[in-house]
């Protein structure tokens, strides 16, 4: 069985805990917050570990990476499209989320603050616990800082001006986005100081456990926070720290980043752990966990090809076409195309044990359409995704991203020539020509455009593209916005301010003085 962060217990206000072992009956014991047993919590190192495991649990439900967060990150971008019959999902992709309908974006907002609350409980209570193993205590506190930073990162990045609770209280005032990014940076800095490079070779209750936050993960997200705030100098220094750890390398097979075959691999800085084997079979839609919950993802069924799932999300034709812009050194198509998209490939393509052309032969619309392959259980071991039980881990941060973000920082700080080296490291995996030979002497502006292209093809359907579009200011650039509209009709419904989601109405009602985001 995979060694991952799973199984449940509840403490405090429906504090869900996740452990790294198989589920036993005693793991499902729930402590009633209305009786005295809660007062006995936060006493031991095991309590502390269970407490931080609870914060990991907030990554696994519908508001976060089971389904909603990938949708919020993906479907606004020009690498995807949605014609979902579910209005809430359709509206996300068309910049039309409704304040009166908090489905998807509201669930995400709620779960981010659930995770922040759980991390705050660790940061409030664990410092007062006596540990024999001081290193374990530091690791637990470091993980809590990392997870709080990650939840804050999403909240600030997607909702702009949000509360920043760092201690337990009743009301939390709305803060500016600048204040939000400052808190994100502070949390990731604190995490990086306390976390190990790896859990292999350490001693303690968490020894050898995969899926826990590491120094590299904290530094990687710290660098992203600097990059998103255009602090290129600090971002460059931080990404170089990740590179210099000597821990990470690109895997040979690009597709290994999106299946169960090679999870927690050398390229992965942080991924959310899902498994068909952990827990029960019920879906965890949110709130307090139940004993029958499994730890599986609904991403696969949501993005699946027609007749194998709901097909709520599909790749864009702009993405498909851009994969054809450049051939490999041997004159072949970029292999990332076949790892990302199902299509009617000359010579045939298999999906779920079926030949694409044969399976869709009676449906010309589907035969001539394109579908998501990334994060699908489509290599023949399953007939379809209708059991809603994907065990594929969600890769949040890959080493390829570190390399390309570092290249971007080099370019933005005047070392455009140096950027070539790190871009080529990513291109080499898929056998693309030497960029320094194919496009020598790019100016800083031209290199910005090239990095946009490189990131578009390396990270489609991974939740990065719209973040890039927003942080690069393309939506405020009339020429770039027109270009986006020409390649993705969904941008025709964009209006200023809709790059962020609305503050959910429940937050507006419960937190007096909260100001709604522009255009809502």
Protein described:
This protein is mostly helical and 520 residues long. It contains 20 helices and twelve strands. The protein has helices spanning 45-57, 68-74, 87-93, 105-125, 134-159, 177-194, 215-228, 232-244, 299-303, 317-322, 336-340, 356-359, 364-367, 399-412, 416-429, 435-438, 444-458, 465-471, 478-487, 505-510; strands spanning 10-11, 15-16, 80-81, 268-272, 275-279, 294-295, 314-315, 341-342, 350-351, 354-355, 371-372, 394-398. It has a two-stranded antiparallel ribbon. A two-stranded antiparallel sheet has the order 3-7. Residues 1-36 have low confidence and may be disordered.
Work out the oligomeric state of the chains in this entry. single chain
How many individual β-strands?
12
Counting DSSP H or I runs of 4 or more residues, the number of helices is 20
Most strands sheet: 2 strands, antiparallel
Q: Structural class, from helix and strand content?
A: mainly alpha
Strand order in the sheet with the most strands: 1-2
Distance between the termini: 47 Å
Radius of gyration (Å): 22 Å
* Amount of beta strand: 5-15%
| Low-confidence blocks of residues | 1-36
- Give the mean pLDDT: 92
Organism: Flavobacterium nitrogenifigens
Family: Belongs to the SusD family.
Pfam family, one: SusD-like_3
Subcellular location: Cell outer membrane
């Amino acid at each position: 069985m995979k060694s991952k962060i799973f199984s449940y217990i509840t403490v405090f206000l429906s504090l869900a805990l996740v452990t790294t072992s198989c589920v036993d009956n005693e793991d499902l014991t729930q402590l009633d917050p209305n009786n005295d047993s809660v007062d006995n919590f936060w006493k031991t190192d095991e309590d502390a570990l269970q407490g931080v495991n609870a914060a990991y649990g907030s990554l696994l439900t519908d508001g976060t990476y089971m389904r909603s967060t990938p949708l919020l990150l993906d479907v606004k971008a020009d690498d995807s499209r949605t014609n979902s019959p579910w209005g809430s999902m359709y509206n996300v992709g068309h910049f039309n989320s409704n304040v009166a309908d908090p489905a998807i974006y509201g669930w995400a907002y709620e779960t981010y603050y659930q995770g922040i609350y759980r991390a705050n409980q660790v940061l409030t209570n664990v410092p007062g616990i006596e540990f024999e193993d001081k290193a374990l205590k530091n690791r637990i506190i470091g993980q809590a800082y990392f997870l709080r930073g990650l939840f804050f990162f999403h909240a600030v990045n997607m909702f702009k001006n949000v509360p920043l609770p760092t201690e337990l209280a009743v009301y939390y005032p709305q803060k500016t986005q600048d204040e939000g990014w400052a808190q994100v940076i502070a949390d990731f800095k604190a995490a990086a100081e306390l976390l190990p490079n790896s859990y292999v070779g350490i001693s303690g209750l968490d020894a050898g456990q995969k899926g826990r936050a590491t120094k590299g993960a904290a530094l990687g997200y710290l660098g992203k926070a600097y990059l998103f705030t255009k602090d290129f100098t600090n971002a460059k220094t931080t990404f170089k720290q990740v590179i210099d750890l000597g821990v990470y390398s690109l895997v040979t097979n690009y597709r290994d980043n999106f299946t169960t075959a090679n999870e927690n691999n050398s390229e992965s800085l942080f991924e959310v752990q899902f498994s068909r084997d952990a827990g029960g079979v019920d879906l965890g839609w949110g709130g307090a966990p139940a004993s029958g919950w499994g730890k599986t993802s609904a991403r696969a069924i949501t993005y699946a090809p027609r007749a194998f799932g709901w097909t709520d999300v599909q790749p864009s034709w702009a993405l498909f076409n851009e994969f054809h812009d450049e051939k490999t050194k041997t004159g072949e198509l970029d292999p990332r195309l076949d790892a990302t998209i199902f299509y009617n490939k000359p010579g045939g393509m298999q999906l779920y044990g079926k030949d694409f052309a044969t399976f869709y032969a009676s449906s010309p619309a589907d035969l001539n359409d394109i579908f998501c392959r990334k994060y699908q259980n489509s290599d023949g071991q399953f007939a379809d995704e209708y059991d809603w039980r994907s065990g594929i881990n969600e890769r949040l941060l890959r080493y390829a991203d570190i390399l390309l973000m570092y290249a971007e920082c080099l370019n933005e700080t005047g070392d455009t020539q140096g950027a070539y080296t790190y871009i080529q490291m990513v291109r080499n995996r898929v056998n693309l020509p030497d960029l320094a030979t194919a496009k020598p002497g790019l100016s800083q502006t031209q290199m910005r455009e090239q990095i946009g292209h490189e990131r578009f093809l390396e990270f489609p359907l991974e939740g990065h593209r719209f973040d890039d579009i927003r942080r690069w200011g393309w939506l405020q650039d009339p020429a770039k916005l027109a270009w986006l509209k020409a390649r993705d009709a969904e941008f025709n419904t964009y209006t200023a301010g809709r790059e962020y989601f609305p503050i959910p109405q429940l937050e507006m009602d419960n937190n007096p003085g909260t100001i709604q985001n522009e255009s809502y």
